[in-house]
Amino acid sequence: FGLREAASGAVRINGVDPRDVRPDVLRRQVALARDVEIFDGTILENIHLERPDVSINDVRTAAETVGLMSAIQRLPNGLETSLNATGSPLTSGQLRRLMLARTLAGNPRVLLIDELLDSMSDEEAERILKTLLESDSERSIVLVTNREKLKAMMKNVVMLTSEYQESEAQ
User: Residues 28-66, buried b or exposed e (16+ Cβ, 10 A)?
Assistant: First the structure.
């Protein structure tokens, strides 16, 4: 998002250099799910982030997609449940799913998932990735993972090492 310059190589989104796109436009089109970052506020506020283009229905759909909505509905105040900066009363697994819901609620065209699924159980990570890959969205997913099973679910795999390698997933 413009914070770091690449030492080598190039990034293109539909053939366009992201540096040639206004940052606000880029942020609406590209979302990054990496670390758990929660602020004091409700679950709704933590997913919505006061984005004018995100509706309550977008929040609910995103939470459902990542398997979080049923847990939210069991809380006495549902989406209006207050979270502190540590994310309590949600579990660490639920907080990781909340991070994915936050990115999905904005309906980005490019979703970058940077090792967030690696900190989930195999079953949970595979279920979430399968749901994302099977959605009718035209979203591109870039997944950074160390798990072979997750790599195998992807259509294309690019291994970034000291030398570039690309392969079709089997």
Answer: eebbbbeebebeebebbbbbbeeeeebeeebbbebbebb
